[in-house]
Please model this.
Amino acid sequence: MLAESGITIVIDMAKSIPADGAIPIGEALDNAKMSKLHVTFWFLGGLGIMLDGFDFFIIGVANPLIKEDLGASSVETGLISTAAIVGAFVGATFLGPLGDKLGRQRIFRYDLVMFVIFSVACMFAWDVPSLIVARFLLGIAIGLDYPIAASFLAEILPKKNRGRWLVSAFSLQAVGMLLAAIVGVVILLALPYDTSWRWMLGFGIVPALIIILLRRKVPESPRWLAENGQEDQAVAVTTQLTGISTYVSKKDQKTPTRTPEGLKSLFQPALFKKGMRRRTIFTAVPWFLMDIATYGVGIFTPTLLAAFAIAGPNSSGIADDIAATEGTAALDVFLVLGFVAAIFLVEKLGRIRLQLGGFVFMSVGLLVLALASALPGGGGQHLILVFGGFAIFNFFMNAGPNATTYALPAEVFPSEIRAAGHGFAAGMAKLGAALGVFLFPILLDSIEQWMLLSGLAVVCLIGFVVTLVYQIEPAGKSLDEVSGRKAGALAAKVD
Model:
């Protein structure tokens, strides 16, 4: 018997032996109907992504206060903003493969314990260097959750619902961003001091502790259990999820190929073999390009609003910080709407159409902002263009690439390297995010605003081209079809 915080799973030793009417666990999981347990585990998986969204937004609110309180220079402010993103790159890329070795469940909980510890460290940072280090370590925890959560969800969700629910899980990032906006404004109003940034960065401890307790209910992935010789547990979890008699077939118990760890995990051979190379390019490169624009524009939206003369300079005081936060939060509503659209459209239109269309309209939104900046009088004289540009960018970003790039790596890689593949793609994405966050303020001071925004539009168009060339559409396919031997039939050969 396995008991996890109220969910009791009874293991019948005979279940591992095929019974009349029993079907393989992989087939059972792919063709199952969504159950309450599916929804529960989906929610608990997505809550980790919510914390990423919270941290993503709250640091933008906190930065002006940190600059005043700790006397941070512009370069140091950039390093503070980038530190967690670089940490996420390390966590996803270097530690993601641990999920393939140790299982999804164990890492699933412990990464958030790290989040709590280093959130406390951020609260009590005594100077800029200590804050940068704490933020970096916090980012490792965030990055590690990406491949583990995505791999687990992809392995338990039915093929009919997999794309929609994977996108839904990632949509909780937008919920986290809105939560951060609310928390930021409330703290600024209640505690209008330069030191209030400590409470902002520390607030993430509260939801993290709650999620840790709730995640005790999450069992191990049955596909991982089957591949690692734990057949009885695999059958038990599958039966609990599907409500039908199952057994572990030879196909289900494929001997896992262990992936390298540590520094070797960055460019592990398994991800660059002929059968995997196209998938690695297809999942990593568009996500990398998308995050350059997403994080650059996202974190510095208050700065852009100030440059457009819509809000006062967000570094000048508490009142201006509140105004910039409120303005950004209003625009972030379109992030939520974009995710809602993706949830309803991802199975109907497919991942590829959403990603291609999203990249195109992200470029359109950025070009509209560039136009507003270049016209006489600047953005302050063309508020409709500014609002429209941000709205288009935010909506189609989340209706397209920001949703699909998270889902695709969890689907196109085989189970034995799924966490590693997703970890590599997520790591490359965070590398792009760090690049965007670090370079954005430098370029904003060095070149015309319209030139910077136009450059980001070109980056999005490159993402469109890479997606078009290397596309693999998982919609309506089983995980075995899209990531196994039949995967080559789903798209033209590019290798």
In short: Residues 54 and 176 are 4 Å apart (CA to CA).
